[in-house]
């Protein structure tokens, strides 16, 4: 079953994606986010390091008769080897649900990819993270990404956090970075 936070992550970006947009799903997993992004955009480039993710996503897309997707078996760190211009990048961090929990997104590569994307984001472009601080690596990603947010110029970037502040056990949350202005003054 999808979580409330995953559903919300779709609801909030939906109005900001149009049929002219290229989107990136940095962590395709079972393909639910890829399918969602593809239904709204011109094309989706979806990344995952696990063969299982590509085969599950391929099945889901075929069942849904969705063709405007390129599935890439590579780390999101290599995004710019495949795609150069895009509206937004979607990260649903962590491990494949019902899969091998040791194959999870890692703080070093998550930060490395952030640093690359943020420099090349177009005005109105965005990066959305669904973050899972309830497991060890997810907690490291959570801390590191929040520190990164503090380094961004608030005149250029708007940063939105949606979380569940009154729930126990470090529930997942959304961090959404939108570039609202050019950095060329
Ligand atoms: C929480 S799952 C994604 C859920 C997915 N978006 C969906 O709709 O089902 C996280 C995925 O990130 C993948 N992953 C881990 N490290 C990665 C990396 N460096 N580059 C791309 N994908 C990675 C994992 O293999 C896993 O499938």
Helix-strand layout with pairing:
Blueprint: H1 4-13, E1 22-25, H2 32-40, E2 43-48, H3 51-63, E3 69-73, E4 88-92, H4 107-120, E5 126-131, H5 136-149, E6 157-162, E7 173-179
Parallel strand pairs: 1-2, 1-4, 2-3, 4-5
Antiparallel strand pairs: 5-7, 6-7
Helix pairs in contact: 4-5
The structure holds S-adenosylmethionine.
S-adenosylmethionine binds next to helix 2 and strand 2.
Structure description:
The chain is 32% helix and 21% strand. It is α/β, with parallel strands linked by helices. The protein has a single domain (4-14, 22-179), classed as Vaccinia Virus protein VP39 (Rossmann fold). Strands 3-2-1-4-5-7-6 form a seven-stranded mixed β-sheet, sandwiched between helices. The protein is globular, with a radius of gyration of 15 Å. The protein starts with a helix and ends in a 6-residue tail after the last strand. The mean pLDDT is 96. Bound molecules: S-adenosylmethionine. The site of S-adenosylmethionine has 23 residues, from helix 2 and strand 2.
């Amino acid at each position: 079953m999808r979580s409330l936070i995953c559903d919300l992550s779709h609801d909030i970006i939906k109005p900001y994606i149009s049929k002219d947009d290229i989107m990136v799903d940095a962590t395709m997993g079972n393909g639910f986010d890829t399918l969602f992004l593809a239904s709204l955009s011109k094309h989706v480039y979806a990344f995952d390091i696990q063969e299982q993710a590509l085969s599950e996503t391929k099945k889901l897309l075929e069942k849904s008769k969705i063709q405007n997707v390129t599935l890439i078996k590579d780390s999101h760190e290599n995004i710019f080897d495949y795609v150069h211009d895009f509206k937004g990048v979607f990260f649903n961090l962590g491990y494949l649900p019902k899969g091998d929990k040791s194959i999870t997104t890692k703080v070093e590569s998550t930060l490395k990819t952030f640093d690359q994307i943020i420099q090349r984001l177009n005005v109105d472009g965005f990066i959305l993270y669904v973050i899972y601080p309830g497991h060890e690596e997810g907690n490291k990603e959570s801390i590191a990404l929040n520190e990164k947010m503090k380094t961004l110029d608030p005149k250029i970037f708007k940063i939105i956090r949606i979380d569940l502040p009154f729930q126990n056990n470090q529930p997942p949350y959304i961090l959404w970075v939108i570039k609202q202005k050019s950095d060329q003054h």
